[in-house]
Amino acid sequence: MSFLKKKRKTTEKKLSPSPQSTPNPSLPDDLLLSYFARVSRLYYPTLSLVSKRFQSLLSSVELYKARSHLGNTDICLYVCLEFYPCSQCPTVPPSRPTYVPGLVAVGSNIYSIEKLSSYVSILDCKSHTWSEAPSLPVKLVSLSASVLDGKIYVAGCSYKDDDSPDSFENTLEVFDTKAQTWDLKTIPCKKRERNIFYFRESNIVYSRSACIDGKFYLKTSTEAVSYSSKEDRWDLVGEDMCDSMISHYYCEIENVVYSASDGILRWYDSEADKWELLKCLEGLPKFPRGSRIRLADYGGKLVVLWEGDVFDLRHIGGYKKIWCAEIELERWKRREIWGKVVWFDIVLTIPKSCYLAKVLAVTV
């Protein structure tokens, strides 16, 4: 009997309503935005997990306006991977088909310019959303895109008549990212050579271009030329500069071209018209033979990404690691540039069937 009374009292105690808790007052959006604007963007993925409200504020236009007003921006690296449809490569944000030579970064946006279809897509790296830009006026068989003064220079070749493979026409289109308009530029060697922008590397068509010191440089099949937008003039330049501009093994940092062709880090001395070794580099691992290497300008520093050797062959052909190194650059004795390795480490593991295609530095 006493046991039943005790059980009834316990049950009643459990069923009795608890006093209502007073909810904590939420902070106003303006205050949260002011706080978020002062925090590095690296913490945003973690903060967005707190609530849907946080997630909405962290992807809002107002936040990035506040960051810009405070002068608080971060440089983020975006890595483009090539892979077969069956590969389980990570894609964040959700990717869409891209043509690697047509990928360029302008401010906080990545532009994807496709050959043949001539479509142009824009990835807003603040909100990780895609939008469409005006298409290329012509459909190009091959192209190479570079950025100069906020404009995208797209050099390539198109079929001149009825998609005939024997009738190429060289084209240079310039896209104004502010006005969102295309402008056709005349190429002086356009009639002299039919396919100056037509290159092959491992059965893939590529063309090579770079923007350095206010000029657009282009490697043709027989020579190298430069275009000055201020003077609206074309000039012949030393061909040696473009010899090591193979695929995407090069980048430009503060008007100096750096290359990782043949697995060796070099820089181009424009005064001497020759390539020089990037010296020092103590502690930097040796790149595996045949490894894909990609370079990027990381706020005046050189970032190097490369593929490691394949391991764990038991799982669908194996995996490979992507390594990253950050290198500070310092000029010595006018004709020497030394590199100081700040850090290097493994940053990503991908299936063997995935390939390191391109690295873009974006300011957000």
From TrEMBL:
Signal peptide segment: none
Biased segments, Basic residues type: 1-11
Location of the F-box domain: 21-67
Annotated SUPFAM superfamilies: Kelch motif
Region (Disordered), start-end ranges: 1-26
Coiled coil: none
Pfam families for this protein: F-box, Kelch_FKB95
Name of this chain's protein: F-box domain-containing protein
Species of provenance: Microthlaspi erraticum
